[in-house]
Structures are given as structure tokens and as C-alpha cells.
Amino acid sequence: MNATTGSFTPIPREGNNEKIRRARKGLLYFFAMLVPLSILSYVLVSKQTPMSILLLMWSPALASIFARLMLREGSADISLRFGGRQFFKSLPFILLLPVIIGLIAYGTAWATGLVDFVAPDTFIKASPAVTFTGLLLGQMVAGTAIGILTSFGEELGWRGYMLTRLIDARIPAPMLTSGIIWGLWHLPVLFMGLYYSGPNLALSALLFMISCTSMSYIIGRVRMTTGSLWAAVLLHACWNAVIQDVFDAFSQGKNALLWTGESGILVALTLFIAAVLLSLKKMKVRDLSLNR
User: Fold this and answer.
1) Close Cβ partners of 268 (under 8 Å, ≥ 6 residues apart)
2) Contacts of 192 by beta carbon, 8 Å cutoff, 6+ apart
3) What's the Rg (C-alpha) of the chain?
4) Cα 15 vs. chain centroid, distance in angstroms?
5) pLDDT by residue (tens digit) across 57-103?
6) Buried b or exposed e, range 4-32, using 16+ CB within 10 angstroms
7) What are the CA-CA distances from residue 49 to residues 42, 117, 154, 279 (Å)?
8) How crowded is the C-beta side of 219, counted as CA atoms within 13 Å?
């Protein structure tokens, strides 16, 4: 693939078949390491072992490193560069998307009285609106920067390895498949009661899968169109910082977790609509071939 124009360079059938075979073998190695490492992490998380969450979030990265070493693939396709003009053009989208999703989903819940808007006890001694704005701006910058430590571990594995191999392996609907796998990987923590969930666990799991699959499409698209893994890392980190540490913190009430949060009805619906709208726009893919 031509990284400058986004056009594909024809590959001989023999070379294409070999690329498919290697991608599928890479996925086999990836999951062979990811599954046991994730199970170990879940066990440690359930026992509240120190650093267990960090190990869990870095499991995809460790699995991808293992697969690369086994196949001697190198690291050129990870795209650890800022992607030039396209990356910087994407920054407003990366930083503002979580805010927009939050204002629509949580704002609807607050305005309709489904969820109470209550300022948490913080060092900012001001009105709830001022406190919210101050924390929001702080999390968009400082929270995102801190969140890179954990989001990089996930993105190095999910969008830095698994997604591109799903595409190269000719797996049907690779973006959808990637999102479903990402969502299923999170579910054990939700079932253990260590993640936000509403009064009905089955409904929460379904809504969480919708949120995860939709968000995975958005993150994957950003990674592919910018040609930079950093775009995916920043969007993932910014989402966690803004949604979990600001919007969730200001949402209280009996039904808060039913309507808001990553397993809430309004967040799942808003993310799904955002993913559908984004999918209607033609995507210019960069740097997806292993033969760079």
C-alpha cells in the first residue's frame, strides 16, 4: 500500500496468499498468549492484587510482542510516528469526541432528570458548572497524558496488531470483529462487579458490547486514516479521562448506571449513532499492509 496516496499496490497471488497465511498465524500466536495472560490478570484483579489492572491492560501489548517475536515480524507496521499533517488534523476530533459524546448522552440524562447532575467533592470550590468545566479541561489535557500509560498497552495489541492482522488475514468484517473481541475481553471485569454496570447485569453487558464495538470502530478508523498508532492511543486515553473521570463523576442517582456510563443506555446509543455516521464517510486507509 502506498502510504502517501492511500492507494493499493497490486500484489502477486503468491505473495498475497503468503501475507494472508502469516497474518492468520500471527493471530494464532496473539490469542495463544492473550487468553492465558488475561485469565491470570482477571484472577489477580479479583484478589485486588497490586498492579493487576495494569497487567490486564498491557496483556494485549505483551501478546502482540510475543507474536511478533515468534514470526520475526519486526515493528515497522506499528506506526509509532505522529503521522504528519493527517495526525495533527485529527487532534481536535480526538480531544473533542469524548466531550461531544458526553454532552449529548449525559446532558440528555441530566436535562430530563433521569440522572442527577451533582458535583463531587473536589479541591475546586466553585459552582457545579464551573467545577465541571475546570475538571473537564484538566482531564482533556493532564488526564489524557496520564492515561497514555495504560491505553498504550491496549492499543499496541488491539489496533497496533490484532486489527491489522484481521484485515490482512481477510477475516470478514474486521472492524466489527475487532470491536466484538475487545468488548468480550472486558466482560469478565464487569461480571465480577469491578466495572460500571446497571441494575440488570445482562442488559448492562449487552449495552457495554454496543458501546465497545462502536468505540472500537471509531478508534480503529482513526488509527487507519492517520497511519499512526498514537492517534488511537490518545483517543482511548482521552475517552477514559473525560467520560470516566468527569461525566461519570458528576452523575448520581438511583438510575445513573442504567442511563449513563459505558454500560448505560444513552452512552451506548450515542456511540452507536456516532459510529454509523462516521462509517458513512469514505475512509482513506494508510499503512495497513505488512509489506511496508
Assistant:
1) 207, 208, 210, 211, 214, 262
2) 42, 45, 46
3) 20
4) 32
5) 999 999 999 999 999 998 888 878 766 678 888 999 999 999 999 99
6) eebeeeeeeeeeeeebeebbeebbebbee
7) 10, 33, 20, 40
8) 32
H-state helical runs in the chain = 13-46, 52-71, 84-112, 128-138, 144-157, 163-168, 174-191, 201-226, 229-239, 256-259, 265-279
Give the containing element (helix H, strand E) for 116.
strand 116-117
The residue with cell 454496543 is 210
In the prediction, which pLDDT does 173 show? 93
pLDDT at position 6 over 60: no
User: Which residues lie below 8 Å from residue 179, measured CB to CB, with a gap of 6+?
Assistant: 212, 213, 214, 215, 216, 217, 220
CA–CA separation, 21 vs 42, rounded Å? 31
239-to-86, 132, 146, 216, 223 alpha-carbon distances in Å: 20, 16, 12, 12, 15
What is the per-residue pLDDT for 292?
A: 37
Q: Return the C-alpha torsion angle 154, 66, 31, 82, nearest 10.
A: 30
Considering the entire predicted model, what is its pTM?
0.89
Measure the CA angle with vertex 232, ends 228 and 235; round to 5°: 135
Residue type, position 178, single letter: S
Which helix H or strand E contains 281, and what residues bound it? none
DSSP string, 35-76: HHHHHHHHHHHHTT-TTHHHHHHHHHHHHHHHHHHHHT--SG
Q: What are the pLDDT digits (tens) for 100-132?
A: 999 999 999 999 999 999 988 877 778 889 999
pLDDT at residue 150 is higher than 60: yes
